[in-house]
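Sanity check. The docking grid for FE2/S2 (inorganic) cluster depends on where the pocket ends up, so I'm generating a full predicted complex first rather than guessing from homology. Inputs follow.
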Amino acid sequence: MKTTLTVNGTTHEVEADTRTSLLDALRNHLDLTGSKKGCDHGQCGACTVIVNGRRINSCLTLACMHDGDEITTIEGIGTAEQLSEMQANFVKHDGYQCGYCTPGQICSATAMLDEAKAGWPSNVSGDLTGTIDLTDDEIAERMSGNICRCAAYPNIVDAIRETAEGRK
Amino acid sequence: MRPFDYIRAEAQSDATRAGAEGATIIAGGTNLLDLMKLEVMAPDKVVDITRLDLGEIGEARDGGLRIGALVTNSDLAADMRVRKNYPALSSALLAGASGQLRNKATTGGNLLQRTRCYYFYDTDQPCNKRAPGSGCGAIGGASRLHAILGVSENCIASHPSDMAVAMRMLGASVEIESEDGETRVVDLAEFYVLPGEDPSVETVLKPGDLITHVILPAPRAGRQTYRKVRDRASYAFAMVSVAGRVSVQDGRITEAALAFGGIGSQPWRDGHVEEMLVGEEPSTALFAKAADALLADAVTQDGNAFKVPLTKRTLIATLKDLTAEIAQ
Ligand SMILES: Cc1cc2nc3c(=O)[nH]c(=O)nc-3n(C[C@H](O)[C@H](O)[C@H](O)COP(=O)(O)OP(=O)(O)OC[C@H]3O[C@@H](n4cnc5c(N)ncnc54)[C@H](O)[C@@H]3O)c2cc1C
Ligand code: FES
Ligand code: FES
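Predicted complex below; grid placement will be based on this.
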Protein backbone atom coordinates (compact mmCIF):
# COMPACT_ATOMS: atom_id res chain seq x y z
CA MET A 1 0.00 0.00 0.00
CA LYS A 2 1.32 3.44 -0.96
CA THR A 3 1.28 6.20 1.65
CA THR A 4 2.52 9.78 1.47
CA LEU A 5 4.19 10.98 4.66
CA THR A 6 5.75 14.38 5.23
CA VAL A 7 8.49 13.75 7.74
CA ASN A 8 10.52 16.64 9.13
CA GLY A 9 9.46 18.76 6.17
CA THR A 10 10.32 16.26 3.43
CA THR A 11 7.59 14.37 1.58
CA HIS A 12 8.10 10.65 1.05
CA GLU A 13 6.09 7.95 -0.67
CA VAL A 14 6.23 4.76 1.34
CA GLU A 15 5.23 1.41 -0.17
CA ALA A 16 4.53 -0.93 2.74
CA ASP A 17 2.33 -3.80 3.93
CA THR A 18 -0.88 -2.57 5.60
CA ARG A 19 0.42 -4.02 8.90
CA THR A 20 3.36 -1.59 9.03
CA SER A 21 3.22 0.66 12.08
CA LEU A 22 4.20 4.29 11.67
CA LEU A 23 7.25 3.47 13.82
CA ASP A 24 8.37 0.67 11.49
CA ALA A 25 7.78 2.87 8.44
CA LEU A 26 10.00 5.57 9.92
CA ARG A 27 12.73 3.20 11.02
CA ASN A 28 12.73 0.53 8.33
CA HIS A 29 11.48 2.35 5.26
CA LEU A 30 12.80 5.87 5.80
CA ASP A 31 15.88 4.95 7.81
CA LEU A 32 14.96 7.40 10.56
CA THR A 33 16.13 5.25 13.44
CA GLY A 34 16.01 7.97 16.09
CA SER A 35 12.52 6.87 17.14
CA LYS A 36 12.95 3.77 19.27
CA LYS A 37 10.95 0.60 19.79
CA GLY A 38 10.77 -0.24 23.46
CA CYS A 39 7.61 -2.25 23.99
CA ASP A 40 5.70 -1.92 20.67
CA HIS A 41 2.47 -1.75 22.75
CA GLY A 42 2.02 1.85 23.82
CA GLN A 43 3.46 1.25 27.27
CA CYS A 44 6.84 2.99 27.22
CA GLY A 45 6.80 6.09 24.99
CA ALA A 46 10.19 5.38 23.34
CA CYS A 47 8.47 5.66 19.93
CA THR A 48 6.88 9.07 20.58
CA VAL A 49 6.71 11.32 17.52
CA ILE A 50 4.69 14.46 16.78
CA VAL A 51 1.93 14.08 14.18
CA ASN A 52 0.12 17.22 13.01
CA GLY A 53 1.36 18.95 16.17
CA ARG A 54 0.37 16.24 18.66
CA ARG A 55 2.60 13.70 20.38
CA ILE A 56 1.55 10.09 19.82
CA ASN A 57 2.97 6.58 20.18
CA SER A 58 4.08 5.70 16.64
CA CYS A 59 4.04 1.96 17.49
CA LEU A 60 0.26 1.92 18.00
CA THR A 61 -0.80 3.43 14.71
CA LEU A 62 -0.65 2.21 11.12
CA ALA A 63 1.52 4.07 8.64
CA CYS A 64 -1.26 3.87 6.03
CA MET A 65 -3.61 5.79 8.34
CA HIS A 66 -1.27 8.80 8.14
CA ASP A 67 -1.48 9.50 4.41
CA GLY A 68 -0.85 13.23 4.01
CA ASP A 69 0.11 13.83 7.64
CA GLU A 70 3.00 15.98 8.89
CA ILE A 71 5.33 14.08 11.19
CA THR A 72 8.18 15.38 13.32
CA THR A 73 10.69 12.89 14.66
CA ILE A 74 13.73 13.50 16.85
CA GLU A 75 15.73 14.00 13.63
CA GLY A 76 13.52 17.01 12.90
CA ILE A 77 13.69 18.53 16.39
CA GLY A 78 17.35 19.49 16.10
CA THR A 79 20.71 18.33 14.78
CA ALA A 80 24.00 17.51 16.50
CA GLU A 81 25.28 20.92 15.37
CA GLN A 82 22.12 22.78 16.25
CA LEU A 83 20.36 21.29 19.24
CA SER A 84 16.86 22.46 20.13
CA GLU A 85 16.54 24.14 23.51
CA MET A 86 15.00 20.98 24.95
CA GLN A 87 17.85 18.83 23.62
CA ALA A 88 20.47 21.24 24.97
CA ASN A 89 18.82 21.14 28.38
CA PHE A 90 18.78 17.32 28.38
CA VAL A 91 22.54 17.47 27.76
CA LYS A 92 23.06 20.15 30.39
CA HIS A 93 21.11 18.27 33.07
CA ASP A 94 22.26 14.79 32.09
CA GLY A 95 18.65 13.75 31.42
CA TYR A 96 19.55 10.17 30.46
CA GLN A 97 21.93 7.32 31.03
CA CYS A 98 21.73 4.75 28.23
CA GLY A 99 19.80 7.18 26.03
CA TYR A 100 17.31 4.67 24.66
CA CYS A 101 14.24 6.51 25.90
CA THR A 102 15.67 9.96 25.14
CA PRO A 103 14.35 10.63 21.61
CA GLY A 104 10.87 9.74 22.83
CA GLN A 105 11.31 11.84 25.98
CA ILE A 106 12.39 14.88 23.96
CA CYS A 107 9.62 14.60 21.34
CA SER A 108 7.09 14.08 24.11
CA ALA A 109 8.36 16.97 26.25
CA THR A 110 8.50 19.32 23.27
CA ALA A 111 4.85 18.71 22.41
CA MET A 112 3.84 18.60 26.09
CA LEU A 113 4.93 22.22 26.53
CA ASP A 114 2.50 23.22 23.78
CA GLU A 115 -0.32 21.31 25.53
CA ALA A 116 0.40 23.17 28.77
CA LYS A 117 0.58 26.46 26.88
CA ALA A 118 -2.84 25.74 25.38
CA GLY A 119 -4.11 25.47 28.98
CA TRP A 120 -4.79 21.73 29.01
CA PRO A 121 -5.21 20.56 32.61
CA SER A 122 -3.65 17.34 33.89
CA ASN A 123 -4.58 14.76 36.49
CA VAL A 124 -2.68 16.72 39.15
CA SER A 125 -3.99 20.20 38.30
CA GLY A 126 -5.91 21.30 41.38
CA ASP A 127 -8.28 23.41 39.32
CA LEU A 128 -9.47 22.13 35.94
CA THR A 129 -10.14 25.63 34.64
CA GLY A 130 -7.21 27.52 36.18
CA THR A 131 -3.90 28.48 34.58
CA ILE A 132 -1.19 25.86 34.34
CA ASP A 133 1.92 26.21 36.45
CA LEU A 134 4.42 23.57 35.34
CA THR A 135 5.53 22.37 38.77
CA ASP A 136 7.63 19.23 39.06
CA ASP A 137 4.46 17.27 39.85
CA GLU A 138 2.80 18.61 36.71
CA ILE A 139 5.83 17.72 34.60
CA ALA A 140 6.04 14.21 36.04
CA GLU A 141 2.32 13.58 35.48
CA ARG A 142 2.34 14.94 31.93
CA MET A 143 5.44 12.87 31.11
CA SER A 144 4.21 9.61 32.68
CA GLY A 145 3.81 8.06 29.22
CA ASN A 146 7.59 8.03 28.85
CA ILE A 147 9.31 5.36 30.89
CA CYS A 148 13.04 5.56 31.61
CA ARG A 149 14.52 2.23 32.66
CA CYS A 150 17.65 4.03 33.81
CA ALA A 151 15.43 6.18 36.04
CA ALA A 152 16.94 9.49 34.97
CA TYR A 153 13.63 11.08 35.95
CA PRO A 154 14.88 13.85 38.27
CA ASN A 155 17.28 15.10 35.59
CA ILE A 156 14.64 14.79 32.88
CA VAL A 157 12.31 16.94 34.97
CA ASP A 158 15.14 19.49 35.49
CA ALA A 159 15.73 19.69 31.73
CA ILE A 160 12.04 20.16 30.97
CA ARG A 161 11.54 22.71 33.76
CA GLU A 162 14.45 24.81 32.50
CA THR A 163 13.10 24.69 28.94
CA ALA A 164 9.62 25.67 30.11
CA GLU A 165 11.02 28.56 32.13
CA GLY A 166 13.08 29.74 29.17
CA ARG A 167 9.91 29.98 27.09
CA LYS A 168 7.95 32.09 29.54
CA MET B 1 0.05 -9.71 13.15
CA ARG B 2 -2.12 -11.45 10.55
CA PRO B 3 -2.41 -9.77 7.14
CA PHE B 4 -5.52 -7.69 6.56
CA ASP B 5 -7.12 -5.52 3.89
CA TYR B 6 -7.29 -1.84 4.70
CA ILE B 7 -10.31 0.23 3.70
CA ARG B 8 -10.57 3.97 4.31
CA ALA B 9 -14.15 5.12 4.90
CA GLU B 10 -14.97 8.42 3.17
CA ALA B 11 -18.61 8.39 4.33
CA GLN B 12 -20.37 6.88 7.34
CA SER B 13 -22.14 4.47 5.01
CA ASP B 14 -18.75 3.09 3.86
CA ALA B 15 -18.02 2.20 7.48
CA THR B 16 -21.37 0.60 8.21
CA ARG B 17 -21.35 -1.36 4.92
CA ALA B 18 -17.80 -2.60 5.51
CA GLY B 19 -18.71 -3.48 9.09
CA ALA B 20 -21.73 -5.48 7.95
CA GLU B 21 -19.42 -7.34 5.55
CA GLY B 22 -17.14 -8.33 8.43
CA ALA B 23 -14.60 -5.51 8.61
CA THR B 24 -13.41 -4.29 12.02
CA ILE B 25 -13.50 -0.55 12.63
CA ILE B 26 -10.27 1.20 13.54
CA ALA B 27 -10.31 4.68 15.11
CA GLY B 28 -7.33 5.67 17.29
CA GLY B 29 -6.06 2.11 16.99
CA THR B 30 -4.55 2.18 20.47
CA ASN B 31 -6.52 -0.84 21.64
CA LEU B 32 -7.19 -2.69 18.40
CA LEU B 33 -3.58 -2.67 17.16
CA ASP B 34 -2.29 -3.71 20.58
CA LEU B 35 -4.61 -6.74 20.40
CA MET B 36 -3.90 -7.44 16.71
CA LYS B 37 -0.17 -7.57 17.37
CA LEU B 38 -0.84 -10.34 19.90
CA GLU B 39 -3.39 -11.95 17.55
CA VAL B 40 -6.02 -11.70 20.26
CA MET B 41 -7.99 -9.96 17.54
CA ALA B 42 -7.27 -11.00 13.96
CA PRO B 43 -9.62 -9.24 11.53
CA ASP B 44 -9.02 -9.86 7.83
CA LYS B 45 -10.50 -6.48 6.94
CA VAL B 46 -10.05 -3.21 8.79
CA VAL B 47 -12.02 -0.05 8.04
CA ASP B 48 -10.40 3.24 9.02
CA ILE B 49 -13.01 5.76 10.15
CA THR B 50 -10.62 8.56 11.11
CA ARG B 51 -11.45 10.66 8.00
CA LEU B 52 -15.16 10.81 8.86
CA ASP B 53 -16.63 14.08 10.03
CA LEU B 54 -17.20 12.98 13.63
CA GLY B 55 -14.59 15.08 15.39
CA GLU B 56 -16.74 17.89 16.78
CA ILE B 57 -18.34 18.53 20.16
CA GLY B 58 -21.72 20.13 19.49
CA GLU B 59 -24.50 21.36 21.76
CA ALA B 60 -27.45 18.98 22.14
CA ARG B 61 -30.98 20.38 21.93
CA ASP B 62 -31.68 20.01 25.66
CA GLY B 63 -28.57 21.94 26.68
CA GLY B 64 -26.28 18.94 26.88
CA LEU B 65 -23.37 18.03 24.61
CA ARG B 66 -23.21 15.82 21.54
CA ILE B 67 -19.70 14.45 21.30
CA GLY B 68 -18.48 13.08 17.96
CA ALA B 69 -17.14 9.52 18.15
CA LEU B 70 -13.77 10.69 16.83
CA VAL B 71 -13.22 13.43 19.39
CA THR B 72 -9.95 12.47 21.06
CA ASN B 73 -9.72 11.88 24.78
CA SER B 74 -7.35 14.89 24.99
CA ASP B 75 -9.72 17.24 23.21
CA LEU B 76 -12.70 16.09 25.25
CA ALA B 77 -10.84 16.51 28.55
CA ALA B 78 -9.65 19.99 27.55
CA ASP B 79 -12.99 21.26 26.22
CA MET B 80 -13.97 24.21 28.43
CA ARG B 81 -17.66 23.18 28.52
CA VAL B 82 -16.66 19.73 29.78
CA ARG B 83 -14.20 21.13 32.31
CA LYS B 84 -16.82 23.51 33.69
CA ASN B 85 -20.05 21.49 33.52
CA TYR B 86 -18.87 17.87 33.54
CA PRO B 87 -15.65 18.03 35.57
CA ALA B 88 -15.89 14.35 36.56
CA LEU B 89 -15.56 13.49 32.87
CA SER B 90 -12.47 15.67 32.34
CA SER B 91 -10.93 14.19 35.48
CA ALA B 92 -11.70 10.62 34.45
CA LEU B 93 -10.16 11.14 31.02
CA LEU B 94 -7.07 12.77 32.52
CA ALA B 95 -6.68 9.86 34.95
CA GLY B 96 -6.51 7.41 32.03
CA ALA B 97 -3.57 6.24 29.93
CA SER B 98 -0.86 8.80 28.98
CA GLY B 99 -0.66 12.11 27.15
CA GLN B 100 0.37 10.37 23.93
CA LEU B 101 -2.41 7.78 24.12
CA ARG B 102 -5.09 10.34 24.92
CA ASN B 103 -4.07 12.27 21.80
CA LYS B 104 -5.01 9.22 19.71
CA ALA B 105 -7.71 7.48 21.72
CA THR B 106 -11.21 8.39 20.57
CA THR B 107 -14.54 8.65 22.37
CA GLY B 108 -16.03 5.69 20.48
CA GLY B 109 -12.93 3.54 20.80
CA ASN B 110 -12.61 4.24 24.50
CA LEU B 111 -16.16 2.96 25.15
CA LEU B 112 -15.34 -0.22 23.24
CA GLN B 113 -11.85 -0.93 24.56
CA ARG B 114 -11.51 -4.55 25.60
CA THR B 115 -10.68 -5.88 29.04
CA ARG B 116 -7.08 -5.95 30.31
CA CYS B 117 -7.54 -9.49 31.74
CA TYR B 118 -4.21 -11.31 31.45
CA TYR B 119 -5.91 -14.47 30.19
CA PHE B 120 -7.74 -12.56 27.47
CA TYR B 121 -4.38 -11.16 26.33
CA ASP B 122 -2.52 -14.50 26.33
CA THR B 123 -3.65 -16.70 23.45
CA ASP B 124 -2.14 -19.77 25.14
CA GLN B 125 -4.58 -19.43 28.04
CA PRO B 126 -8.26 -20.30 28.29
CA CYS B 127 -10.63 -17.35 27.97
CA ASN B 128 -14.35 -17.46 27.24
CA LYS B 129 -14.27 -13.88 26.02
CA ARG B 130 -11.59 -14.52 23.39
CA ALA B 131 -12.33 -18.18 22.65
CA PRO B 132 -15.88 -18.99 23.79
CA GLY B 133 -16.10 -22.35 25.53
CA SER B 134 -12.39 -22.54 26.42
CA GLY B 135 -12.95 -21.67 30.10
CA CYS B 136 -11.91 -18.81 32.35
CA GLY B 137 -8.31 -18.72 33.55
CA ALA B 138 -8.94 -15.87 35.96
CA ILE B 139 -11.41 -17.79 38.11
CA GLY B 140 -9.05 -19.47 40.53
CA GLY B 141 -6.11 -17.76 38.79
CA ALA B 142 -4.56 -14.29 38.87
CA SER B 143 -7.42 -11.88 39.41
CA ARG B 144 -6.03 -8.62 40.76
CA LEU B 145 -7.50 -6.58 37.90
CA HIS B 146 -10.79 -8.41 37.87
CA ALA B 147 -14.39 -7.57 38.58
CA ILE B 148 -16.41 -8.40 41.68
CA LEU B 149 -19.80 -7.15 40.45
CA GLY B 150 -21.73 -8.27 37.39
CA VAL B 151 -19.53 -11.32 36.89
CA SER B 152 -20.63 -14.78 35.79
CA GLU B 153 -19.25 -18.26 36.26
CA ASN B 154 -17.84 -17.93 32.76
CA CYS B 155 -16.00 -14.64 33.08
CA ILE B 156 -14.83 -12.15 35.72
CA ALA B 157 -13.16 -9.63 33.39
CA SER B 158 -13.50 -5.99 34.40
CA HIS B 159 -14.23 -3.13 32.03
CA PRO B 160 -11.10 -0.98 32.00
CA SER B 161 -12.36 2.44 30.89
CA ASP B 162 -12.21 5.50 33.13
CA MET B 163 -14.11 7.71 30.68
CA ALA B 164 -17.06 5.34 30.49
CA VAL B 165 -17.44 5.36 34.29
CA ALA B 166 -17.84 9.14 34.33
CA MET B 167 -20.21 8.97 31.37
CA ARG B 168 -22.30 6.33 33.12
CA MET B 169 -22.55 8.56 36.19
CA LEU B 170 -23.54 11.52 33.99
CA GLY B 171 -26.33 9.55 32.32
CA ALA B 172 -24.79 9.56 28.83
CA SER B 173 -26.25 7.77 25.83
CA VAL B 174 -24.73 6.45 22.63
CA GLU B 175 -25.89 7.38 19.13
CA ILE B 176 -25.47 4.54 16.67
CA GLU B 177 -25.88 4.36 12.90
CA SER B 178 -26.61 0.95 11.43
CA GLU B 179 -26.08 -0.46 7.96
CA ASP B 180 -29.59 0.46 6.81
CA GLY B 181 -28.81 4.12 7.54
CA GLU B 182 -31.08 4.22 10.62
CA THR B 183 -29.93 5.98 13.77
CA ARG B 184 -30.77 4.85 17.28
CA VAL B 185 -29.86 6.18 20.70
CA VAL B 186 -29.04 3.72 23.48
CA ASP B 187 -28.62 4.73 27.11
CA LEU B 188 -25.20 3.71 28.40
CA ALA B 189 -27.13 1.74 31.05
CA GLU B 190 -28.37 -0.55 28.26
CA PHE B 191 -25.32 -0.40 26.01
CA TYR B 192 -23.13 -2.96 27.78
CA VAL B 193 -24.36 -6.50 28.42
CA LEU B 194 -23.50 -8.76 31.33
CA PRO B 195 -21.09 -11.66 30.67
CA GLY B 196 -23.69 -14.38 31.34
CA GLU B 197 -23.36 -17.42 29.08
CA ASP B 198 -21.30 -15.81 26.35
CA PRO B 199 -18.83 -13.19 27.60
CA SER B 200 -17.57 -12.57 24.05
CA VAL B 201 -20.68 -10.44 23.54
CA GLU B 202 -20.01 -7.17 25.36
CA THR B 203 -22.44 -4.61 23.96
CA VAL B 204 -25.70 -4.36 22.06
CA LEU B 205 -23.81 -3.40 18.88
CA LYS B 206 -24.38 -5.54 15.77
CA PRO B 207 -22.06 -5.94 12.79
CA GLY B 208 -22.33 -2.79 10.68
CA ASP B 209 -23.13 -0.54 13.66
CA LEU B 210 -21.09 2.64 13.90
CA ILE B 211 -21.00 4.76 17.04
CA THR B 212 -21.39 8.30 15.75
CA HIS B 213 -21.84 10.31 18.96
CA VAL B 214 -22.09 10.19 22.71
CA ILE B 215 -24.74 12.45 24.16
CA LEU B 216 -24.43 14.05 27.59
CA PRO B 217 -27.64 15.32 29.17
CA ALA B 218 -27.81 18.95 30.30
CA PRO B 219 -25.54 19.58 33.30
CA ARG B 220 -27.10 19.04 36.73
CA ALA B 221 -26.51 20.76 40.00
CA GLY B 222 -24.07 19.48 42.57
CA ARG B 223 -20.42 18.83 43.08
CA GLN B 224 -18.67 16.26 40.86
CA THR B 225 -15.51 14.23 41.21
CA TYR B 226 -13.61 11.25 39.87
CA ARG B 227 -11.42 9.33 42.28
CA LYS B 228 -9.14 6.57 40.97
CA VAL B 229 -7.10 4.14 43.05
CA ARG B 230 -4.34 2.29 41.21
CA ASP B 231 -1.03 0.50 41.64
CA ARG B 232 1.06 3.51 40.63
CA ALA B 233 0.44 7.24 40.60
CA SER B 234 -0.07 7.57 36.85
CA TYR B 235 -0.41 5.51 33.66
CA ALA B 236 -2.12 2.52 35.26
CA PHE B 237 -5.62 1.09 35.13
CA ALA B 238 -8.00 1.48 38.06
CA MET B 239 -8.16 -1.03 40.88
CA VAL B 240 -11.21 0.89 42.01
CA SER B 241 -12.60 4.18 40.79
CA VAL B 242 -15.66 6.24 41.67
CA ALA B 243 -17.33 8.95 39.60
CA GLY B 244 -19.78 10.91 41.71
CA ARG B 245 -22.13 13.86 41.75
CA VAL B 246 -23.97 14.90 44.87
CA SER B 247 -26.18 17.89 45.65
CA VAL B 248 -26.85 18.95 49.19
CA GLN B 249 -29.53 21.40 50.31
CA ASP B 250 -30.27 22.46 53.86
CA GLY B 251 -28.00 19.76 55.20
CA ARG B 252 -29.62 16.93 53.27
CA ILE B 253 -28.59 15.12 50.13
CA THR B 254 -31.07 15.97 47.38
CA GLU B 255 -29.48 14.15 44.45
CA ALA B 256 -26.76 11.54 44.11
CA ALA B 257 -25.25 9.80 41.08
CA LEU B 258 -22.42 7.29 41.45
CA ALA B 259 -20.62 4.99 39.05
CA PHE B 260 -17.71 2.64 39.64
CA GLY B 261 -14.72 1.41 37.66
CA GLY B 262 -12.31 -1.48 38.20
CA ILE B 263 -14.88 -3.57 40.04
CA GLY B 264 -17.57 -4.24 37.44
CA SER B 265 -17.84 -6.27 34.25
CA GLN B 266 -19.11 -2.97 32.86
CA PRO B 267 -19.02 0.61 34.16
CA TRP B 268 -21.10 -0.04 37.27
CA ARG B 269 -24.04 1.92 38.63
CA ASP B 270 -26.54 0.89 41.25
CA GLY B 271 -29.61 3.09 41.60
CA HIS B 272 -30.49 1.51 44.94
CA VAL B 273 -27.30 2.90 46.51
CA GLU B 274 -28.10 6.39 45.25
CA GLU B 275 -31.64 6.18 46.62
CA MET B 276 -30.25 5.28 50.04
CA LEU B 277 -28.41 8.61 50.13
CA VAL B 278 -31.17 10.92 48.95
CA GLY B 279 -33.04 12.71 51.72
CA GLU B 280 -30.42 11.83 54.31
CA GLU B 281 -27.93 13.92 56.22
CA PRO B 282 -24.40 13.18 55.04
CA SER B 283 -22.45 11.09 57.55
CA THR B 284 -19.73 8.48 57.52
CA ALA B 285 -22.20 5.95 58.88
CA LEU B 286 -24.58 6.62 56.00
CA PHE B 287 -21.79 6.34 53.45
CA ALA B 288 -20.61 3.05 54.96
CA LYS B 289 -24.14 1.69 54.78
CA ALA B 290 -24.37 2.68 51.12
CA ALA B 291 -21.05 0.99 50.40
CA ASP B 292 -22.21 -2.20 52.11
CA ALA B 293 -25.35 -2.20 49.97
CA LEU B 294 -23.30 -1.72 46.81
CA LEU B 295 -21.03 -4.61 47.72
CA ALA B 296 -23.63 -6.98 49.16
CA ASP B 297 -23.63 -9.14 46.02
CA ALA B 298 -19.88 -8.99 45.37
CA VAL B 299 -18.35 -12.24 44.15
CA THR B 300 -14.67 -12.34 44.98
CA GLN B 301 -11.59 -14.47 44.27
CA ASP B 302 -8.46 -14.73 46.41
CA GLY B 303 -6.76 -12.22 44.13
CA ASN B 304 -9.41 -9.51 44.19
CA ALA B 305 -11.17 -9.82 47.57
CA PHE B 306 -9.21 -6.71 48.63
CA LYS B 307 -11.51 -4.71 46.37
CA VAL B 308 -14.41 -5.02 48.82
CA PRO B 309 -12.79 -3.02 51.63
CA LEU B 310 -10.95 -0.82 49.12
CA THR B 311 -14.19 0.10 47.34
CA LYS B 312 -15.86 0.81 50.65
CA ARG B 313 -13.08 3.13 51.75
CA THR B 314 -12.91 4.80 48.35
CA LEU B 315 -16.64 5.41 48.24
CA ILE B 316 -16.70 6.84 51.77
CA ALA B 317 -13.79 9.16 50.95
CA THR B 318 -15.44 10.25 47.70
CA LEU B 319 -18.76 11.01 49.37
CA LYS B 320 -16.98 12.93 52.12
CA ASP B 321 -15.28 15.07 49.47
CA LEU B 322 -18.55 15.66 47.71
CA THR B 323 -20.35 16.72 50.88
CA ALA B 324 -17.41 18.34 52.72
CA GLU B 325 -18.23 20.97 55.38
CA ILE B 326 -21.49 19.11 56.03
CA ALA B 327 -20.51 15.49 56.79
CA GLN B 328 -19.71 14.57 60.41
C1 LIG C 1 -0.50 1.42 27.87
C2 LIG C 1 -1.95 1.76 27.90
C3 LIG C 1 -2.52 2.28 29.06
C4 LIG C 1 -3.86 2.62 29.09
N1 LIG C 1 -4.40 3.10 30.24
C5 LIG C 1 -5.73 3.40 30.30
C6 LIG C 1 -6.34 3.85 31.51
O1 LIG C 1 -5.69 4.04 32.53
N2 LIG C 1 -7.67 4.11 31.49
C7 LIG C 1 -8.42 3.95 30.37
O2 LIG C 1 -9.62 4.21 30.42
N3 LIG C 1 -7.88 3.50 29.23
C8 LIG C 1 -6.56 3.23 29.17
N4 LIG C 1 -6.02 2.75 28.01
C9 LIG C 1 -6.90 2.39 26.91
C10 LIG C 1 -7.21 3.50 25.95
O3 LIG C 1 -8.06 4.44 26.61
C11 LIG C 1 -7.93 2.87 24.75
O4 LIG C 1 -6.98 2.11 24.04
C12 LIG C 1 -8.53 3.89 23.83
O5 LIG C 1 -9.48 4.68 24.50
C13 LIG C 1 -9.20 3.21 22.65
O6 LIG C 1 -9.62 4.19 21.71
P1 LIG C 1 -9.15 4.08 20.19
O7 LIG C 1 -9.83 5.18 19.44
O8 LIG C 1 -7.69 4.02 20.06
O9 LIG C 1 -9.81 2.69 19.80
P2 LIG C 1 -9.46 1.61 18.71
O10 LIG C 1 -8.31 0.79 19.14
O11 LIG C 1 -9.39 2.24 17.37
O12 LIG C 1 -10.79 0.75 18.78
C14 LIG C 1 -11.18 0.03 19.93
C15 LIG C 1 -12.41 -0.79 19.58
O13 LIG C 1 -13.51 0.05 19.32
C16 LIG C 1 -14.07 -0.19 18.04
N5 LIG C 1 -14.49 1.14 17.55
C17 LIG C 1 -13.75 2.30 17.62
N6 LIG C 1 -14.48 3.35 17.23
C18 LIG C 1 -15.72 2.87 16.91
C19 LIG C 1 -16.93 3.49 16.45
N7 LIG C 1 -17.02 4.81 16.26
N8 LIG C 1 -18.00 2.70 16.24
C20 LIG C 1 -17.94 1.36 16.44
N9 LIG C 1 -16.82 0.73 16.87
C21 LIG C 1 -15.73 1.48 17.11
C22 LIG C 1 -12.98 -0.86 17.25
O14 LIG C 1 -13.52 -1.73 16.27
C23 LIG C 1 -12.23 -1.63 18.32
O15 LIG C 1 -12.82 -2.87 18.54
C24 LIG C 1 -4.66 2.44 27.94
C25 LIG C 1 -4.08 1.95 26.76
C26 LIG C 1 -2.76 1.61 26.72
C27 LIG C 1 -2.16 1.08 25.44
S1 FES D 1 7.46 1.36 21.60
FE1 FES D 1 5.69 2.59 21.41
S2 FES D 1 5.16 2.91 23.45
FE2 FES D 1 6.78 1.49 23.67
S1 FES E 1 18.17 6.79 29.66
FE1 FES E 1 18.12 4.63 29.68
S2 FES E 1 16.02 4.25 29.51
FE2 FES E 1 16.04 6.36 29.83
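Relevant for the grid: The pocket of flavin-adenine dinucleotide (ligand 1) is lined by residues A 42-43; B 24-32, 34, 49, 69, 96-97, 101, 104-106, 108-110, 112-113, 160-163, 210-211, 237 (CB under 6 Å).
Also worth noting: Helices of chain A lie at 22-29, 74-77, 85-93, 102-117, 136-142, 153-167.
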